[in-house]
């Protein structure tokens, strides 16, 4: 973003009060086993309006980083799961803010129909910075079934091919540590994704949070989260096997302390980032002149505009 815009561009996370087709029955019921869907209860969420959330995010981010340009990041739940007119209205509201230069829209691969892709492409043609963030998590249908994801790899392929036809930038989300998966699964998933073409990646350790099916499995001893060393090894390996033009938007994630059950290292974002950086330095793969996470003193912040801690779209 610095190269492209000559200045820092920051995402502002937005909860636009979407729901999820994997919970309401249109795609599945119960949601992903790692998803805390307590917040789907009728009174569980009453997020402020889009403009209000942008204003709140802008205040915090500008103070913290000095950024003056932003992407509106429609992050919480499935951000394409609505009537196209309603989507246009929400996205338009964000783009009407003078310092919002684009959108990042998080969704499921089975929820990116042609009209939505056309709409995003239209924004892109108007000069906006547009990112479609697709939650794939794994390319193995068996793994996706095991976490009740409600879609397979074929839906991802369809979505990505259609999105790429329209020139959209794609960021694919992957989870490391899914039940039954090994380092080899992660590597194969990366290879399949790179083969289809992608512009960005997000890596996320699978963590166990309260109010989930995964928490029950963990309590019964049926699921063991990764150790920190295992996560570092797999994440580092994926990064070093990814071509440099593919941007890592994220290489770890945390959960709110009030929700996180395991593993406890998931509460320490900077520890994980610094360990990955160190591992990459050891492999002589990072550029010594670049800014590293070790240099960064920004604290992890949770605020009212933060998305639900457990939505791994
Ligand atoms: S993790 Fe995302 S896709 Fe899965 S049930 Fe929750 S909101 Fe839906």
Comma- or semicolon-separated keywords:
313 residues, alpha/beta, TIM Barrel, 7-stranded parallel β-sheet, two-stranded antiparallel ribbon, 10 helices, 9 strands, 35% helix, disordered C terminus, binds iron/sulfur cluster
Ions, cofactors and other ligands present here are:
iron/sulfur cluster
The CATH superfamily turns out to be Aldolase class I
Radius of gyration: 19 Å
**Structural class from helices and strands?**
alpha/beta
Beta-strand content estimate? 15-25%
| Main pleated-sheet profile | 7 strands, parallel
Q: What count of domains describes the coordinates? A: 1
The strand count comes to 9
- Described by the principal axes of the CA atoms, the overall outline is globular
Mean pLDDT: 90
**CATH fold-type name:** TIM Barrel
Q: Could you explain how this protein is built, in words?
A:
- With 313 residues, the chain is α/β, with parallel strands linked by helices.
- It has one domain (2-295): Alpha-Beta Barrel (TIM Barrel).
- Helices cover 35% and strands 17% of the residues.
- The chain has ten helices and nine strands.
- The strands form two sheets. A seven-stranded parallel β-sheet has the order 1-2-3-4-5-6-8. Strands 7-9 form a two-stranded antiparallel ribbon.
- Strand 2, helix 3 and strand 3 form a beta-alpha-beta unit.
- Helix 9 packs across helix 10 (269-282).
- It is globular.
- Bound molecules: iron/sulfur cluster (SF4).
- Iron/sulfur cluster is lined by residues 20, 22-23, 31-32, 35, 77-78, 108, 311-313.
- Iron/sulfur cluster (SF4) binds next to loops.
